[in-house]
Amino acid sequence: MKLFALALSLFVASSAAAQKELPLPAELPPYGPETAVQAPTVQERKLDNGLTVWMVPRSGFPKVSLILAAVGGTAADPKERPGLAQLLAVTLSQGTNHRGAREIAEEMQGAGGDIAAAGFRDVIRVSASVLSARAPKGLAVLADIVQNAAFPDNEVALAKRKLAGQLEQQEADPSFLASRAMAKTLFGDTPYAFVTPTKQSIEAATASELRSAFASRFRPDQALLVIVGDFQAGEMFAQVRDQFGGWRNPSLPPVPPATAPTTLPSHAIFLVPRPESVQTTLLFGAFGPLRGDTDYEAAEVANAIYGGSFGSRLTLNIREDKGYTYAPFSFLQIYRAAGVLQTRADVRNAVTGATFNEVSYEMNRMATTAVTDRELQQAKRFLVGLDAIKLQSQDAVAAELADLWNKGLSPAEIGLHGHKIGATTAANIESVSRKYFPASKMSIVAVGEEKVIRDALSQFGLPIQPAP
């Protein structure tokens, strides 16, 4: 969502002209040459225990961003404990064998920063940002957490109450309901099907269980440490060796990698009833490329043209022309072993059927008609520009590198990405659009008033069935 919001602001200037294909004002200078983002210089090291270290010295701004990524996100959770990784993440920094939760918070505050953890599908990340002069202190606290987290009973109980409260709030959010149902629709009984804890899994989780999960998932031979900021690489690596060199791998087997489903989901409508809802949330989903696939960048450009930017075909159709919804959008969601193309629109009940028809039309138009030179040029510039803005932040560079590592790619991809976008041709777009965008490939989740959805969507001849 943050990326989409940034996309809106970046593309709004060009979209006004794109809406009616008007020429740009004569007094504007022509576009300059496309320039890909200058890739940061990444120094790759590895400790004897297997910990991978990627360092990016960047002088100027006196901060250092740190991320420790460990294999074992929600896809590694036991089936009877969906979302365990999220509970593990939120309790990681609440006490170690050497520091209490208050001491951790105070030390990080004294270092001019903070620390947080989050559970994703494939990994758990612990992130910190500190003043350059206090980087050794921040590194020491991070090292203590990922090696010695203690999961005190009282902190686990508090975290469980908070997570249960958040889940209760999410249950009232149609977007959450749609995303949860789509994950189960696409991934069936495979690990990527679960995106959040259940009430039952939260209640059943124990501090002892979290300690066991921590022991198996946080191990140096399945972890990456990313450091970006104002520091000297030699000095920093010496500190890393001091803090992490004694970290030992457990005798437990490594967390197995997640695998993608072998069967395709149904082209059907999956209904999530939301009584008395005044709007319908429509979510279309199908499998897309992996991050390392040769057609990934072309799929990104195609998505920007179709629905992933403010000047996209979908936005111009159902927002600007017809006024069905405020902010329809499409996006590529990429995991280590699977990629998904999704389209979402929240619309008032009266235009549920019309919106479904127009989204299907735009998907099929993408799959069957050529893009214009202008569409191609604008989409490529938008994506390259988005990278340029996003990667100004040290935190964003660290997160992007951690994501590349998770997907099995080298840090060089952070620089190659823009060049691959720039090299994308209309023929590439035609190929990926035929492959990923036909409406017949989509599974559709509809959240809202059941009678409204059935009355509006039955005319399209697709099965309408309860969401899994």
Can you characterise this structure?
The chain is α+β, with helices and mostly antiparallel strands and 468 residues long. The chain folds into two domains: 2-19 and 30-36 and 264-466, Metalloenzyme, LuxS/M16 peptidase-like (Cytochrome Bc1 Complex, Chain A, domain 1); 43-244, Cytochrome Bc1 Complex, Chain A, domain 1, CATH 3.30.830.10. The chain has 17 helices and twelve strands. It has helices at 2-19, 84-92, 101-110, 135-148, 153-170, 174-187, 199-204, 207-217, 233-244, 296-306, 313-321, 352-368, 373-390, 394-406, 413-422, 426-436, 450-457, and strands spanning 43-46, 52-57, 63-71, 114-119, 123-131, 223-229, 269-273, 279-288, 329-334, 339-348, 443-448, 464-466. Mean pLDDT is 92; it is low at 1-20.
| First-residue to last-residue Cα separation | 25 Å
State Rg: 23 Å
CATH topology assignment of the largest domain: Cytochrome Bc1 Complex, Chain A, domain 1
The general outline is globular
**Given the helix and strand composition, which structural class is it?**
alpha+beta
The residue-averaged pLDDT reads: 92
Total strand segments: 12
Number of helices: 17
Unreliable stretches (pLDDT < 50, length at least 5) are 1-20
- What is the strand arrangement across the widest sheet? 1-2-6-3-5-4
- Biggest beta-sheet profile: 6 strands, mixed
Element string (H = helix, E = strand):
HEEEHHEEHHHHHEHEEHHEEHHHHHEHE
User: Could you name the CATH homologous superfamily of the largest domain?
Assistant: Metalloenzyme, LuxS/M16 peptidase-like
